[in-house]
Structures are given as C-alpha cells and as structure tokens.
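Troubleshooting: if your tokenizer reports a length mismatch, compare against these two reference records.
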Amino acid sequence: MQRYTYKVVEVREKLLGGKMSGDKLEKLLNDHAADGWQLKAITSAEVKGRVGPGGVDGLLVTFERPVR
C-alpha cells in the first residue's frame, strides 16, 4: 500500500507579495510541484498574522507526495 507525506502551507496576501492573485498562487503551486509535491486541497481560512492576536484572511494549501 502506498504511503504519503503531507505539507500544509499557510498563505497570507503579504506572503505572496501583496494582493493574492492567480499568477502568484500558480507560482507557489509550480514551485512545490518541482519538488515532487502534488496539490491535495486549498481551503480558505483565517491564518495568524505577524502582529496582534487576530488572524487575516488567507489560504491553507495542502500538498502530498509519496513517502520515499
């Protein structure tokens, strides 16, 4: 049976260098794909910001790849 490992990336607008856009998200996905990661899910979420107790709108991007 194939086993997998998972990686979850918290994406905030600032992490993508300003406004979130399809081009910037595409680059993030392609960068991870180059390392063998396959997109599993994208979930809208409130992710922790750098300053203060609250969060900011963002995405949780989940990748998987077979265990080597």
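Reference record two:
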Amino acid sequence: MFDRFVGGRGSVHLWFALVVLVALLGILRVAMSHWRDGATLLGGAFLLAAVFRAGLSTERVGLLAIRSRPVDVVLYGALGAVIVFVAITIKGGPLAG
C-alpha cells in the first residue's frame, strides 16, 4: 500500500526509524515526569508499527517483520492498544504531575 510512495534501499529502514523515533519521544516524556503522555506515545509507536506491518510488503518493512504478517499486526496492535488504554484510564499514580 505504502510501497509506491517511497523507493530505494533506505526506505527499508525508514519505517523502523519512524517507529523508534516515536518510541524515543515517549521515553523522553516519561523521563520528564509526563508518564501519561509518554506511555501514550509508546503505545502509539506499537500501533504505528502495526499499520506499517499491515500496509507494507515483507521486503519493505525491514526490522518490523518478526513473525508472519497476521501475527505481527495482531500483537503490535494489541500491545499498543493496551498501553494506550492503560495510560488514558489510570488516574493519579506516583509519577502523576
């Protein structure tokens, strides 16, 4: 699906780099005591990985391809959804600011 928009060998690493960038931003937000925002970004990184894994061919997805496509999409999506759900629904906590 996304294959026609980006070409070349560097695009194999682009999708993984985007997911890692979102995850690093989430970790940075957690380190700055904004744990709810950071956890939401970390969950969003997994959801982004699920979208890329579902929409890109196995050759283009690079390091995001760990298992078969359906298993990767379900696991990335479920983990991302759970993290976002927990981050949104938990009230207070030791790091609440």
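Descriptive notes for reference record two:
- The mean pLDDT is 87.
- Helices lie at 11-31, 35-55, 58-61, 69-89.
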